């Protein structure tokens, strides 16, 4: 029933607190329903390949809770602009269709493969870093002691 509603709607609400990979967002995009994302800070799936500003409307949480704000804002979106959103959604919706071989499962593994080397780098870097107190000089970037610096100035 919710999916039928999305298919017949122009906009689908994606409130703050929803997980980035929530089915609601995937279902909205597959239905060509423009997501209205109400969040101040959200990490969205596949942002390295999808520009969400072309397929979604973002609303600050503080504005969204003002009575009548969302309704009046969405009424001002032209039919032409809605079609632009939908054309762009059509172009990227395969990322959200599980039956597509390059769909979300493949994209998740691709993102993991991109993050894994960075995680390994950070782990290895942290193993070699020497912990220093706040009063100790790090000779890798300064070749003088704090007392030598104060006498120079």
Automatic annotation (TrEMBL):
The keyword Ligase does not apply. Keywords: Glycosyltransferase, Golgi apparatus, Signal-anchor, Transferase, Transmembrane. Signal peptide: none annotated. It is found in: Golgi apparatus membrane. Residues 3-72 form the Exostosin GT47 domain. The keyword Glycosyltransferase applies. GO terms for molecular function: glycosyltransferase activity. One of its GO terms (cellular component) is Golgi membrane. It is a single-pass type II membrane protein. It comes from Aegilops tauschii subsp. strangulata (Goatgrass). InterPro entries: Exostosin, Exostosin_GT47. Belongs to the glycosyltransferase 47 family. This is Exostosin GT47 domain-containing protein. It comes from the Eukaryota.
């Amino acid at each position: 029933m919710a999916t039928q509603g999305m298919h017949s709607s122009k906009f689908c609400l994606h409130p703050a607190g929803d997980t980035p990979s929530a089915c609601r967002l995937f279902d909205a995009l597959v239905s060509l329903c423009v997501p209205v994302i109400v969040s101040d800070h959200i990490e969205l799936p596949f942002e390295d390949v999808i520009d969400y500003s072309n397929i979604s409307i973002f609303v600050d949480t503080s504005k969204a809770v003002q009575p009548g704000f969302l309704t009046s804002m969405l009424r001002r979106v032209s039919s032409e602009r809605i079609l632009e959103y939908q054309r762009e959604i059509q172009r990227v919706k395969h990322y959200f269709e599980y039956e597509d071989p390059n769909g979300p499962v493949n994209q998740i593994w691709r993102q993991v493969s991109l993050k894994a080397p960075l995680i390994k780098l950070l782990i290895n870097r942290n193993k070699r870093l020497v912990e220093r107190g706040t009063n100790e000089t790090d000779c890798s970037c300064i070749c003088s002691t704090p007392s030598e610096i104060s006498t120079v100035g």
